[in-house]
Write a structure and sequence with these properties.
The protein is an all-alpha fold and about 140 residues long. The chain has three helices and no strands. The protein has a domain at about 25-65. The model has no long low-confidence stretch (mean pLDDT about 75).
């Protein structure tokens, strides 16, 4: 069967030929520039979204957290130290403190004791002697004997 002469069919073929002749790929440089623009827009959009998220979370935290009331005052006011009624150390006449000897393994030696045992620097003033305080070594707070 011979092909019928259809005017619509011939117009379609003519349009297809025209489109085929005009369709050519753009140069590679143009395609690269389009890709760069799309990439820059994507990065700018992500940066803007991150800024919005950070600003929104900061505003939310500022609204949720209570305002600071100001400077924090101590729970109680400290009272001045009262003079202690305990024994007061007597100043020794010599410039160096009297050494105390610890008991040795032989029972023949006897330890010598001074009138007041040496005070460790971590004991508060007026505290009874012989009491162990945190930070004091065991040998300095122990009474020989």
């Amino acid at each position: 069967m011979p092909e019928s002469h259809d005017p619509l069919r011939s117009l379609f073929r003519e349009a297809a030929g025209e489109g085929e002749s005009r369709s050519a790929l753009p140069p590679v440089a143009v395609i690269e520039l389009r890709g760069e623009r799309v990439r820059r827009r994507r990065i700018a959009g992500l940066a803007a979204a991150c800024c919005l998220v950070l600003a929104g979370s900061g505003a939310t935290l500022a609204a949720v957290l209570p305002d600071s009331p100001g400077p924090v005052l101590p729970a109680s006011t400290p009272s001045p130290l009262a003079p202690s009624s305990g024994p007061t150390p007597t100043p020794s006449t010599s410039s160096s403190p009297t050494p105390t000897t610890l008991p040795s393994s032989t029972p023949t030696s006897t330890p010598t004791m001074s009138a007041t045992p040496p005070r460790h620097t971590t004991e508060p003033p007026g505290a009874p002697t012989g009491t162990t305080y945190p930070g004091a070594s065991a040998s300095s707070s122990r009474m020989p004997g």
